[in-house]
Design goal:
- With 429 residues, this protein is an alpha/beta fold.
- The chain folds into 3 domains: 62 residues; 225 residues, Vaccinia Virus protein VP39 (Rossmann fold), CATH 3.40.50.150; 59 residues, no CATH class.
- The chain has 11 helices and 13 strands.
- The strands form 3 sheets. It has a 7-stranded mixed β-sheet, with helices on both faces. The chain has a 4-stranded antiparallel β-sheet with strand order 1-2-3-4.
- The radius of gyration is 23 Å and the shape is globular.
- The chain binds S-adenosylmethionine.
- The site of S-adenosylmethionine has 17 residues, from loops.
Length: 429
């Protein structure tokens, strides 16, 4: 881990600073410890729970994907048409190759027994196509973003810079490479994208198969792509994992917060997100919005247009520069389709300091959305655990009760009992 991050990170739930453990790969405060995987700190507000949650997503994905590969592979034995055989076989080969790589990349979750999760747009394989756009030798789209943001950084001499939802990471890499005097943190919650980005930064040679749903021609359904290998190691860049809006950083510590294709896809509304961004910006700090000209929400009434986006930024910042551009989004030469998208680049600066009067609008109803469904699932599991506690209980006794209730092995029951035991104690003491 780069030393500079210790001036910036802190516990995501308290203001306590994080210390580096001497003998383990951990960061800790008085009450909590946070693991570090592949040199990437896991700074989710509830690290054990989020580990199980992401682990369940990983294990479910691996299970579903391997069953699909096997099933389709079996039916292929009866396929007589050579062109169909070749097409489907190439997809199976591509998917199997990727799956093998992802299994090794995500092997820290091997022991997780999946728990039931609500449907979510944020799955382990979401945004996988970004890897190919980002780590292709050339991407006009990424070059365009890099140029716009490089100008903001050099005109303002910004030092500490945070990239929210950094994804596969090429924009972060380019910016850190081009601005050696600045320090960059790439922040994302997705382990696949974060760990893959780290391996790329470490100079690993990686080949992945780009499986294309809408292939341009018969042999472009699955194409092996050699990912670009960065030539230079960065000492001004660090990946940190966690979950927006629970940012694990000290208040007022960033001069620039960049949100590329991020604020429109997260659950919090734009006003609430800007309250958070404000909190972490330094006094003369600025922020960049880069993304669609209108918010891509599934509900049409929530689709802000460009004037609304600017007007909301105006409530929080005193200067605003913006530009609308047209880009070829996720350009892919193997696809039969092209997505030309109108995008907005917006740079806002000088935060309005009496922000307390601009509190995020409080919603007057409980929204029945994926967050609520996850919450319900969590409470259900908790209820099953708590109903096992009808007298004073040691950790071992709780473990043996969980073994029966959830059909766990001895080892699993001890593992989960340990986590839940701590959580219950935290709630009631
Ligand atoms: C649409 S992608 C954009 C990625 C990248 N900025 C780009 O422009 O290619 C959104 C990114 O935000 C991440 N993300 C979504 N919700 C998040 C959250 N609550 N906290 C942290 N990262 C999140 C996703 O994993 C994904 O990498």
């Amino acid at each position: 881990m780069k030393d500079f991050i210790f001036d910036l990170i802190q516990c995501p739930t308290s203001d306590e600073s994080l210390q580096k453990a001497e003998d383990t790969d951990e960061l800790y405060t008085k009450n909590t410890s946070y693991p570090v995987f592949h040199d990437v700190p896991w700074l989710f507000p509830n690290p054990e729970e989020s580990f199980i949650e992401w682990g369940s997503k990983v294990r479910n994905f691996i299970q579903v994907e391997s069953s699909l590969i096997n099933e389709v592979g079996n039916t292929l034995k009866f396929e007589k048409r050579p062109s169909t055989l070749a097409r489907v076989q190439s997809i199976i080969d591509g998917k199997s190759h990727n799956l093998k790589y992802l299994e090794s990349l995500l092997n820290i979750f091997d022991e997780i027994i999946p728990i039931p999760l609500a449907e979510s747009t944020q799955n382990i394989y979401s945004y996988f196509e970004l890897v190919f756009r980002d780590w292709h030798k050339e991407s006009a789209e990424i070059e365009c973003y890099t140029k716009l943001i490089n100008e903001v950084i050099s005109n303002n001499n910004f030092k500490n810079i945070l990239i929210l939802g950094s994804g596969a990471g090429r924009l972060s890499y380019n910016l850190a490479l081009n601005n050696p005097k600045s320090q960059f943190i790439s922040f994302d919650h997705n382990p696949l994208l974060s760990f893959l980005f780290k391996r790329i930064l470490d100079g690993e040679s990686i080949n992945l198969s780009q499986v294309e749903m809408y292939a341009k021609n018969q042999d472009s359904y699955a194409t092996v792509i050699e990912l670009f290998k960065p030539s230079k190691e960065l000492d001004n860049h660090q990946i940190v994992m966690g979950s927006f809006p629970d940012l694990p950083f000290k208040e007022n510590s960033f001069d620039l917060i960049i949100a590329p294709w991020f604020l429109d896809i997260i659950e919090s509304n734009l006003e609430s997100s800007l309250v958070i961004i404000q909190k972490f910006l330094s006094k003369n700090g600025g922020t960049v919005y880069l993304g669609p000209n209108n918010f891509h929400k599934s509900e049409i009434f929530e689709q802000y247009g460009v004037d609304e986006i600017k007007s909301i930024y105006n409530d929080f910042f005193s200067t605003l520069n913006s530009e609308s551009l047209e880009i070829n989004y996720l350009k892919n030469d193997n696809s039969s389709q092209t997505r030309i998208e109108k995008i907005l680049f917006l740079f806002a600066k000088s935060k309005i300091t009496n922000i307390k009067t601009l509190k995020a609008p409080s919603s007057d109803k409980i929204k029945f959305d994926s967050k609520l469904i996850s919450y319900k699932e969590k409470i259900k599991v908790f209820h099953r655990v708590l109903s096992q506690i009808d007298s004073d209980m040691t950790l071992e006794l709780l473990a043996s009760k969980l073994e029966t209730e959830f059909s766990f092995s001895k080892e699993e029951s001890l593992h989960y009992a340990g986590i839940l035991y701590k959580q219950i104690l935290k709630e009631i003491t």
